[in-house]
Amino acid sequence: MESRAKAAGHAVHQQLIVFPLGLLATAVVFDLIGLVTDDGRFASASYLMIGAGVLMGVVAAVFGLIDYVAIPRGTRARRIGIMHGGGNVVMLVLFALSWLLRAGTGGNVPDAAALVLGLVSLVIAGGTGWLGGELVDRLGVGVDDDANLDAPTQLTTGISVRRAPGVAP
């Protein structure tokens, strides 16, 4: 199924997700660098990136929801979509909590709870990112109206190479 929300011919959700993923992953990396180097500027930058990443995540989620509601009920794509979206909501809430824990300190030197929330969130983002890839790459959600929304996972069927129509193996 093709995306219901497009800009310049491409799915908006898929264009936007690079921002929260990049910002939030980099925020965790900056926290670790700041911790190792004892340089508060990294923690301050991380604080700002988390705020921007959560905001962009909410914007991306709106477009993801638009695409999700168009997926037919009872399909594998619908089940994966709910795990993908639900996991991303949890991830954004955990990052927002990490951001709030830092707010009283001006964003400098996050405490252990803020760091753990960021690390756990990053692990969740890895899982939900894989699920998003499964939706787009394997099931064709957002890119192909003739997609098989019930295609099996590559984890059980092995790795396959998609070929253009008419191209011999």
UniProtKB/TrEMBL annotation:
The UniProt record lists the keyword Transmembrane helix: yes
Organism whose genome encodes this protein: Promicromonospora umidemergens
Residues that span the membrane, as ranges: 16-36, 48-70, 82-101, 113-132
Name the UniProt record assigns to this protein: DUF2231 domain-containing protein
Lineage, opening ranks: Bacteria, Bacillati, Actinomycetota, Actinomycetes, Micrococcales
Claim: Membrane is one of the keywords in the record: yes
Keywords: Membrane, Transmembrane, Transmembrane helix
Annotated DUF2231 domain residues: 9-144
Coiled-coil parts of chain: none
